[in-house]
Amino acid sequence: MSSILYDAAGPRTRRRTLAWSIVGALFVLALLFLAYRQLDEHGQWETERWQVFWDPPMGQSAEDVWRSLLVTGLGATLRAAGVAAVIALVGGLVLAVARMSGTRLVRVPVTTVVEFFRGLPVVLLMFFGVFALELSFFWGVVFGLVIYNSAIFAEILRAGIMSLPKGQAEAAYAVGLTRWQTLFSILLPQAVRRMLPSLVSQLVVLLKDTSLGFIIAYSELLRQLQTNTQFFGQRYWFQFFVVGAAIYIAVNFTLSRLAVYLERRGTTKAAGGVAKAAEPVGGKVGGGEAGSSV
């Protein structure tokens, strides 16, 4: 496949690529070593600092620490992200369909709205929701995430529909399907499958953007990390940073794996599944008693 797109690398190019790969790997290892040494000089690897997660000081228990991170912080993050994702996906679908409308009076205003909200920072929309609309911290975060990501999802879905061959829509019209039947029965399902990686990538961005709720005092995971650091002392900032980063990575990795599973499953269904070999007549393979129907 690679030889179709470009010429295969020759021996000299392969040696040069290998050399630069080794140099790059050594450079990254050197940076990691320097970071490790710097943290070690400040005592960040001392066991006493990491004991905050199983034997915390100041009369707290490990259960209190982990509950604040996983139940209060991560729970608030997932709750805001889940509600915002559902509403934003529905809003993105509506905007995508409206932007592809054949009526100019619908298409032009929707296009303006999508382009306008795509250019606004999410945190600014959160501030607007909390201070201008007087929403709660939770709904202020959801408001900002929904407004921004609806515009992004609309563009992703529209791009997926536009990337499909025009012959599919023409064939649907030829057999008597209406514009809406063609869109929702033929084009949109294929567009969702085709753009699923982009949709999931944006969902990961949406999940990470919940951390902006920290700025408006929403008690999500980042806010809980800061609260624990302030309570136990700044000497534990690195430990809480590492644990918080690990939690974010674990959640986003799980979401990405789920997307891969759904994409493979959708591809299998679109192809009609895996064909099974027909059972030989008479239940025998190659047997003389098994007759032939040909």
What does this structure look like?
This protein is an all-alpha fold. It has a single domain (60-268), classed as MetI-like fold (Orthogonal Bundle). Helix content is 73%, strand content 0%. The radius of gyration is 27 Å and the shape is globular. Pfam families: BPD_transp_1.
Gap between N and C termini: 39 Å
Q: Name the beta content range.
A: under 5%
**CATH architecture tag:** Orthogonal Bundle
CATH topology call: MetI-like fold
The DSSP helix count reads 12
H-E string: HHHHHHHHHHHH
Largest sheet composition: none
DSSP strand tally: 0
Radius of gyration: 27 Å
Number of domains: 1
Helix proportion: over 70%
Globally, the shape reads globular
CATH superfamily: MetI-like
Which structural category fits the helices and strands?
A: mainly alpha
Text of the CATH class: Mainly Alpha
Q: Mean pLDDT, nearest integer? A: 83
Instruction: Show unreliable segments.
Output: 271-278, 280-294
Protein name: Amino acid ABC transporter permease
Organism: Jiangella ureilytica
Family: Belongs to the binding-protein-dependent transport system permease family.
Membrane topology: Multi-pass membrane protein
